[in-house]
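Notes to self after the Tuesday call (sharing in case useful).
The group wants a holo model before anyone commits to mutagenesis around the pocket. I volunteered. Ligand is 4AD. Logging inputs and output together so the record is complete.
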Amino acid sequence: MLFPLIKDLIQFPPESQDLTIRGWVRTKRELKNLIFVEVNDGSSPGGIQCIFDRGSSGHTQLAPSAETILEALPTGSSVAIRGRLVPSPGSGQVVEVAAYAIELIGDAPTDTYPLQKKRHSLEFLREIAHLRARTTIFGAVARVRSRLAFGVHQFFQEQGFHYIHTPIITGNDAEGAGALFQVTTLDLKALAQSGKAPDYREDFFGKPSYLTVSGQLEAETYATALSRVYTFGPTFRAENSNTTRHLAEFWMIEPEIAFADLTDNMQLAEAFLKFLFTLVVRDCAEDLAFIEKVNAPIETGITATLQNILDSRFVHISYTDAVAALEKQASSFAFKPFWGCDLQSEHEKFITEQVVGGPVIVTDYPKEIKAFYMKLNDDEKTVRAMDVLVPRLGEIIGGSQREENYGLLENRMRALGMQLEDYAWYLDLRRYGTVPHAGFGMGFERLIQYITGMVNIRDVIPYPRAVGQAEF
Ligand code: 4AD
Ligand code: MG
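Result:
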């Protein structure tokens, strides 16, 4: 049997009120005969307050060793505390521990332990990412992340989707953006010394291979067999974008649905986001309340913002209409908007924050700025693409209806100079039993960023990988 967590002890107090608390010391303070020790085990943001009373007698009389340990008990040390759970007279907690014994499990010398009582900046904490989960804010974000990950599976599994593990090492560039990390076992140093060009036939896979940028193409092969599938795994992009919303390694959720068009796709995306918002508001209320206090700049508050979205419908707007709205405000942008331009982050934010004032789905983008697999519209200029934009962040989801017509897909791939042989398997899906199908990708970190209001995406993943950053 595992030891009980503080959260459970508070929620379901044991019958015998005697118990042991295990965790890490957050703070210690003294008031006359009383010593207050705040212990946190990561099961909830609050932890529990343990009170040692030097003047106590009877059942809660202090063990002789306790006095010595308490004397020098540092923040960050790990302890086991014995005591009785009692109703708390103080504000801020319902119960507390009338403690009588303490065991110091692991010391944390005050002169070197980096996490002292005071609040540290998120930038500083990023440098000690191996310890930052011990702060309340990173603990809260980690719990929210975990709950959402499970929620993703709940949402899809309840609707007949099957979870597909698409490969992490691949030979294709699904998005055609060329932002690939190459995987090789060739001895690059020896090659450089010999002055010879690499011969990939001698490489591990016998050809160039990469870390995947998206599991979509492989997911399509299963959607056109199992009807509804999704992937949820790590994806990698060697984009040189040093921004607060880009990572080189991020987790992506990609559903793919057969016999579906863009309207179905938009409905699924909205239902998916709303499901996750509902779940997090219900199950992570305490964590959200804490995060909300820290991320004060969000005027309306996190939970209220999510609730507003739950009560409204996502607005749909075409790219063409969106650009027209942007052009009216052209002077407010660093990058001047025009029909055909890729929407910049400033444009996306303007559309969702100013034009719409909430989540919005922009559809039917020019084919030139979107990936090869998207379905061509009758105008032959735009494709059945959709991006879901949310305030503060911009793009949270990108997706499309796929081109299911063999001839049109082949034309598009040729026009882009793609090697058809490399994608023969993908074209086969259109050659044999083709069906209209659609899907989207949601960056898991973008979702957490949006929900928590954390400003930098590097603070919602345990060990962020970005340009020049791969520590731990
Ligand atoms: O818009 P993207 O590039 O679309 C795809 O990869 C498609 N294959 C998805 C599909 O249709 N199955 O990426 C999808 C989402 C974006 O909307 C964004 O949320 C996230 O992935 N994303 C990133 N998140 C963090 N860091 C990055 N560098 C990201 N690039 C994309
Ligand atoms: Mg996109």
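Two things stood out.
The first helix runs from residue 6 to 11.
The chain has two domains: 6-113, 132-162+260-459.
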